[in-house]
Write a structure and sequence with these properties.
By secondary structure, the protein is mainly alpha-helical. It has one domain. It is built from 5 helices and 4 strands, in the order H-H-H-E-E-E-E-H-H. A two-stranded antiparallel sheet has the order 1-4. A two-stranded antiparallel sheet has the order 2-3. A hairpin with a 2-residue loop joins strand 2 and strand 3. It starts with 10 loop residues before the first helix and ends in a 5-residue tail after the last helix.
Length: 116
């Protein structure tokens, strides 16, 4: 039987790992953002394809809660300049909330086991 050993955790190194946008978590976060982008593109209504074509992941950033990557669609209606993600692309405006395609796409991460 192996002898018990003390494990020392470098708290500063752990904190730096979770706060460095170019650190070891970046590839994992980029992969997760890619999964969310694909899921959102698959779910968004596609009358013209403008909204789905412009959904993309931004660069990793840092705020008071830690690392993040934004998944957005900056598409705007040509006539009004109104953001497409707010109204989607249906003939009749049925839903003014962009989360109808983005929020379910986050569940793809749960299904694949990236988050609980």
């Amino acid at each position: 039987m192996a002898a018990a050993r003390d494990v020392e955790i470098d708290e500063a190194a752990v904190a730096a790992m979770f706060r460095d946008p170019d650190g070891p978590l970046r590839p994992i976060m980029e992969r997760c953002a890619g999964i969310v982008v694909l899921g959102a593109k698959r779910r968004v209504e596609k009358r013209t394809g403008t909204s789905a074509a412009e959904i993309h992941a931004g660069e990793p950033g840092l705020d008071e809660r830690g690392l993040y990557i934004d998944v957005i669609s900056p598409a705007k209606a040509k006539k009004t300049g109104f953001p497409y993600p707010t109204v989607h692309e249906g003939r009749r405006v049925r839903d003014r909330r962009a989360h109808r395609s983005l929020r379910p796409a986050l569940n793809d991460l749960k299904k694949l086991g990236f988050i609980r």
